[in-house]
């Protein structure tokens, strides 16, 4: 069974969906650790409620990205983690983590990549006036949302769609797409 760490920076609704899926038996993995770069983020309370260990840090307390990623690597090793799931982690992953976990880091992004990478993908889609957007699960490389695409699902933008209503539709899709995609990935990669 995969031993995963989830990296998040904010509210953690995707984190919660993955925790619920593991507890409900619909995601075959153990969540060993939450890594969070915002010590005040709500996702930390979610992890504590679920009894999941937390490594929270502030980037500015370290000399550079390499220094805090080395510490993260150490924490991952202590917990026996073999796969990293990014869920709203608002940082580019650096070479320290990529060298150790290359091909075993995935992310979820609220658009149909390569459209609307980076921050505020939902706002970018609304601003562009497109009628179709969606959700992408992809491998992580050194770029901004540029890694190989694993799975995508469409979300339609209705007339009069608001940011809140579109975000709700996208989150609904994210919460099951991440679980089903991870399950498929874990089965087909032999773990
Ligand atoms: C999600 O929309 C995810 O696709 C993006 O960041 C957001 C995180 O939301 N990478 P939450 O913290 O899981 O609610």
From TrEMBL:
Pfam families: Formyl_trans_N. Coiled coil: none annotated. Keywords: Purine biosynthesis, Transferase. One of its GO terms (molecular function) is phosphoribosylglycinamide formyltransferase activity. The active site is at residue 109. Residues 3-180 form the Formyl transferase N-terminal domain. Its EC number is 2.1.2.2. PROSITE patterns: GART. It catalyses: N(1)-(5-phospho-beta-D-ribosyl)glycinamide + (6R)-10-formyltetrahydrofolate = N(2)-formyl-N(1)-(5-phospho-beta-D-ribosyl)glycinamide + (6S)-5,6,7,8-tetrahydrofolate + H(+). N(1)-(5-phospho-beta-D-ribosyl)glycinamide binds at residues 12-14. (6R)-10-formyltetrahydrofolate binds at residues 65, 90-93, 107. Belongs to the GART family. Catalyzes the transfer of a formyl group from 10-formyltetrahydrofolate to 5-phospho-ribosyl-glycinamide (GAR), producing 5-phospho-ribosyl-N-formylglycinamide (FGAR) and tetrahydrofolate. This is Phosphoribosylglycinamide formyltransferase. It comes from Rossellomorea oryzaecorticis.
């Amino acid at each position: 069974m995969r031993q995963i760490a989830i990296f998040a920076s904010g509210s953690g609704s995707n984190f919660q969906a993955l925790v619920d899926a593991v507890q409900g038996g619909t995601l075959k993995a153990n969540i060993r650790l939450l890594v969070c770069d915002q010590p005040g983020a709500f996702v930390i309370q979610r992890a504590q409620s679920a009894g999941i260990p937390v490594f929270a840090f502030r980037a500015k307390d370290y000399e550079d990205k390499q220094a805090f990623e080395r510490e993260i690597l150490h924490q991952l090793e202590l917990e026996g983690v073999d796969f990293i799931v990014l869920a709203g982690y608002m940082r580019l992953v650096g070479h320290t983590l990529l060298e150790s976990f290359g091909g075993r880091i995935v992310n979820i992004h609220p658009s149909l990549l390569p459209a609307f990478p980076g921050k505020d993908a939902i706002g970018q889609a609304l601003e562009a006036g497109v009628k179709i957007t969606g959700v992408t699960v992809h491998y992580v490389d050194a770029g901004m949302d540029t890694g190989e695409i694993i799975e995508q699902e469409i979300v339609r933008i209705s007339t009069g769609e608001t940011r809140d209503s579109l975000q709700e539709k996208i989150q609904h899709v994210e919460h099951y797409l991440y679980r089903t995609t991870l399950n498929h990935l874990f089965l087909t990669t032999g773990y």
